[in-house]
Amino acid sequence: MSIVLKKHVNTYYATCPKGLEEVLEQELKNLGATSTKMSSRGVQFKISKENIIDIILYSRIASRLQIILFDFDVKKEKDIYIGLKSINWPRFFNLNQTFKFNFTQGVSETLKKKSQFKNTLYLAMLGKDALCDRFNTELGKRPYIDTKSPDVSITCHLSPKDVKEGKKERLTMMVDLLGSTLGHRGYRLRNQEAPVRENLAAGLIDLAKWDPENENFIDLTCGSGTFLFEAIIKKLKISPRFTQIPDVLDGNLKWNFQKYKFLDSISKSNQFNNKLRAAMRHYKEKIATNSEPIIHGNDFSRKTLDQTQTGFQRIGWHHLVSFSSKNAYKFDQFIDDKNLLFSNPPFGQRLDAIDEKIATLYHEMGENFKQNYKNSRFSVMSSDKQLLGKIRLRAEHKDPFSHGPLDCLLYTYHQM
After folding, report:
1. Residue that wins the pLDDT comparison between 15 and 190
2. How does 342-380 read in b/e, with b if 16+ C-beta sit within 10 Å?
3. Where is pLDDT greater, at 158 or 348?
4. Residue 351: pLDDT band by 50, 70, 90 thresholds?
């Protein structure tokens, strides 16, 4: 078959954990995105080159951000090589940049067809060969491949088409803009473990429909503080990239797109640096002018709470959070206020494998909420429906999501 490349203009794709597609789409729209289209674990959208920096600076929910350059139809492995080799790679990138290919697979729009291609590692080798051969044809030299920390990270996504005959699939070729996940904020120590990724926590806060203007945010089982950090970012409307921006401005850090010559109009523009400086001014102003606690964290473990408080002190946010050390089901502060009580309690994959104390914790948290927090809402995440059933309240909404390999639920309860 003949290969016809379709070139995309100002088209991007943001990935996210499964279950956060709708809140990610709304966030992108709020940041100026248009023509949004959800798919499993991501959202395709359009935005001008001048405004893509707003997504980079302020998206709380996206895992990765990619620019879509081309797509084309394929029927067999040879078509993948031919299509990728037909791209004039030296027009977009430099010979001295290192590359990595990654192939992902989806299903057809009717969800009935899966990709015919099974070995994605082999497909990545085909992509690497196609790119290197095109460079060799144009410049007489081949670039280096780096699978660990490449300058250019390329993702090719295969989606089967719902055709009656044949096995036609669409290959969409994308390039990662940052080179790293947006989910790593940088407010944690390198060896500090957190059970929930930062952007997943941000998305769950949005799934719970927290209203930061009218509700307190209270994490009943705050642990390492991920949900507290993310609640502050949302409430103050600061950039989640606040730890990286100073290094980018100083030239000590370069996001990948700053190395792409076809995106020089973004990275070398005055608007780019101006938006970074404005984000840092806003950040410093918000942190300095809020002198009282704006959210609350609670945890039964005093040791865990001390470590969490140290983390907030390290980045200068200690004055923004008040803490208490109580059993979650005995929490009794802010009773007369409007609150979102949030909890990521211990859970397992089977109820019979869990200590009875955990089942009691779920039940007693529900009882405490029902008896004492008449004007509040309560959100609980778990991978176990039986444990959530111990709360013995009717959830206002139930949101499924993926937490690593676990299929989980976020139940939100409301009392009026």
Report:
1. 15
2. bbbbebeeebeebeeebbebbbbbbebbeeebeebbbbb
3. 158
4. very low
Quick check: is 317 in a domain?
A: yes
Do residues 324 and 298 touch, judged by C-beta distance below 8 A?
Answer: yes
How big is the CA angle at 411 (ends 410 and 416), to the nearest 5 degrees? 140
Strand partners, 107: 114
* CA pair distance 281, 285, nearest whole angstrom: 6
Q: Are 309 and 318 contacting, i.e. CB atoms less than 8 angstroms apart?
A: yes
Residues 6+ apart with CB under 8 A from 81: 126, 127, 129, 130
CB proximity list for 217: less than 8 A, separation 6 or greater: 205, 210, 227, 228, 231, 235, 295, 296, 339, 340, 342
3-class DSSP state of 3: coil
Which 8-state DSSP code applies to residue 377? E
- What does the pLDDT average to over 228-237? 98
Q: Report d(CA 225, CA 149) in Å as an integer.
A: 29
In a domain, 1, yes or no: no
Mean of per-residue pLDDT scores for the chain: 92
Q: Is residue 193 part of a domain?
A: no
Residues 129, 16: Cα–Cα separation, whole Å = 30
Q: Is the pLDDT of residue 55 over 60?
A: yes
Asked if residue 412 lies in contact with residue 395, where contact means CB atoms within 8 angstroms, the answer is yes
- Would you call 272 helix, strand, or coil by DSSP? helix
* CB-based contact 156:172 (threshold 8 Å): yes
- CA-to-CA dists, residue 308 to 233, 294, 318, 329, 345, angstroms: 16, 16, 10, 20, 16
For position 54, what pLDDT does the model report? 97
The CB density around residue 56, as the number of other CB atoms within 10 Å, is 25
Same structural domain, 203 and 236? yes
Over 60: is that where the pLDDT of 353 sits? Answer: no
Last residue of a domain, one of 176, 206, 228: 176
Q: What is the pLDDT of residue 350?
A: 42
Given a contact cutoff of 8 angstroms between Cβ atoms, the answer to whether 59 and 203 are in contact is no
Give me the domain span that covers residue 61: 6-176
Residue type, 291: S
Does 162 lie in the same domain as 294?
A: no
Q: Are residues 142 and 207 in the same domain?
A: no
